[in-house]
Design goal:
By secondary structure, the chain is of the alpha/beta class. The protein has 14 helices and 17 strands. The protein has helices at 25-32, 81-93, 114-122, 126-129, 144-150, 152-159, 169-172, 175-186, 200-203, 218-222, 224-234, 247-255, 284-298, 355-369, and strands at 12-19, 41-45, 58-62, 65-68, 73-76, 102-106, 130-140, 163-167, 192-194, 236-237, 243-245, 271-278, 302-309, 319-324, 327-328, 332-333, 344-351. Strand 3 (58-62) and strand 4 form a beta hairpin. It is globular.
Length: 370
Amino acid sequence: MSAEPKSPVPPIPLTVVTGFLGAGKTTLINRLLKDPELADTVVIVNEFGEIGLDHLLLETLDEGMVLMQSGCLCCTIRGDLVNTLEGLLRKRDNGRITPFRRVLIETTGLADPAPILQTVMAHPYLGLRYSLEGVITLVDAVNGMATLDIQPEAVKQAAVADRLVLTKRDLAGKAAEALIGRLRRLNPLAPLVDAADATASDLLDCGLYDPATKAPDVARWLGDEDLLAALGRKAHRHADGTIHADGDDLRAAAAARGQDHNDPNRHDASIRAHAFATGKPIAAESFALFQDLLRAAHGPKLLRLKGIVKIAESPDNPAVIHGVQHVFHPPVILDHWPDDDQRTRLVFITRDLEPGFVEGLWNAFLGADG
């Protein structure tokens, strides 16, 4: 009698924690790790060193890796994130370490988060075993404005975030308000959280990581509070019912819930948010061609793409998509729509891309599909 086939192992949620030098990433992670929700969490850092949990004994296993008696594992990236993540899986599968339920990757302050996101999404094996849950970006309220002015990495870190965390706000005083306004313009879709009040539930579970056991909260994943406000009230509607909101629409919606100060010295005007919503299904082949053309022509300018798509061949089974620059995660097909809104909803974050290009390309493929 043959053994029954094993069911697929649910992917392990992976969250990237980034932010410029001195933003307070390690301090925040230290505090979050005390939350029971982060029990059995692996933390990967870019540089060797203790996470700072002084009450735990750290035992060095090999170069760049330490095992904490709490069951957490802290690794050092030695230029090979793939080997690090694969090694963790081997140890987990072989019972050599306590099974972990979540991975946090803390980048260096100068890091561009895109290569890390691409590594996880593009690798055929890692893409099955890990699922990118989201990007948490910390911004120093005291030095954040100056950092955004002179450091392009900081601008990109903020632009691709799913959650923006403001640190040292108590030290910044009223100066923090100008920074908040700038962050709202730069990334109008990401909720902004004060680090002093941030909890694990505020920052985690901001992405789709296990469609088999957990229905995605699409509104939360897409940052839809402002998106829907823009699509419903401020964005323009085409004759076929397709709704489009560009960066200005989304920024206006964001400004309605936060101060939006003029800042002539900001250097991030080239980064824009675009959002689309339509109830018209699109053929799977047409959508694949749309993605291929977009990443082939302007991959480096496509900082983030995420959304849920109504496919013509199976309109009751939407496809969840996620891309970073020229790398796209394989679409996840859901058994059903996760909420009552059964429209295609797409969010793009782009840099140095003509505002009308993405909209024109999308409308061309949507029209050709008919």
